[in-house]
Amino acid sequence: MSNFILTVLGTASAVPIADRNPSAQVLNVHGRLFLIDCGEGTQQQFRRLHLSFLKVEAIFLSHIHGDHCLGIFGLLSTMSMYGRTKPLRIFAPRSFGPILKFYQSYFGADDTYQVEHVVLDAKEPQEILAEGELSVSAFPLRHKIECYGFGFTYRGNYAYAYCSDTAPFPELSTWVKGVKYLYHECTYTREHADKAVARYHSVTDDAARCALEAGAERLVIGHYSSRVRDLSQFQKECQETFPDTVAANDGDIFEIY
Ligand SMILES: [Zn+2]
Ligand SMILES: [Zn+2]
């Protein structure tokens, strides 16, 4: 029985498409759920994948682009309809503050539980949560707007790192050094490298190089541009540098420990 399980809810980038939702992932740590990013459709994915809203202990939002946070209003509202009473922490950049206020003033005035916005503000990896066997750190990424990645250490092992939207930069592989499973965004294949540079995103080779330099055991990629329909191209290009690469689909489950 695994104690540390990753479920990928969404692997699309900017817009939802027929068979892909925007970014969201759930980590199940010993039955405690942690949500990472919350793109549109996240709550439907919870239902499809038989995950419980009420078991979510904390939410980590990498940045305030719609494909990573537009699902939050619906999710917060549904948690209240289900009578959640346990306070919920949302770790997010400062710019999430007014968004939460807007939600609370229009939709959440009668919510049954408290939400605490923990402001992310890190120039290098910084521990943001430490509870029992789990420690979570946040580290800055290089994107168009303020954006963070998250590292999850379980029982002293660097189990999982989530590298959301980012252009490649040299420090990143040292910040995720020794991680077992590395998720790295991979918006484009080589063919569209110019777009990746212009939009502060990564291509296959960037993700694969990061995994190689970090000495990761396995690389999981996602956040695919809807321009590229053939997923095998992403996987093939990554595997040239980092053989143990999996191009994730919505609903994929990885038993990390
Ligand atoms: Zn994105
Ligand atoms: Zn973004």
Task: Please summarize what this structure is.
With 257 residues, the protein is an alpha/beta fold. Helix content is 25%, strand content 31%. Strands 6-5-4-3-2-1-14 form a 7-stranded mixed beta sheet. A 7-stranded mixed beta sheet has the order 7-8-9-10-11-12-13, with helices on one face.
| CATH-defined architecture | 4-Layer Sandwich
**Uncertain segments of ≥5 residues (pLDDT<50)?**
none
Tell me the count of domains: 1
Taking all Cα atoms into account, the compactness measure Rg is 17 Å
CATH class: Alpha Beta
Alpha-carbon distance between the two ends: 9 Å
Bound molecules: zinc ion
Could you estimate the helical fraction of the residues in percent? 25-40%
Instruction: Specify the structural class.
Output: alpha/beta
**Strand order of the biggest β-sheet:** 6-5-4-3-2-1-14
Count of individual beta strands: 14
Strand content: 25-35%
> Given the structure, what is the number of helices?
8
> For this structure, what is the CATH homologous superfamily?
Ribonuclease Z/Hydroxyacylglutathione hydrolase-like
CATH topology: Metallo-beta-lactamase, Chain A
Following the backbone from N to C, one meets helices and strands in this order, namely EEEHEHHEHEEEEEHEHHEHEE
Mean pLDDT: 96
Largest sheet: 7 strands, mixed
Morphology call: globular
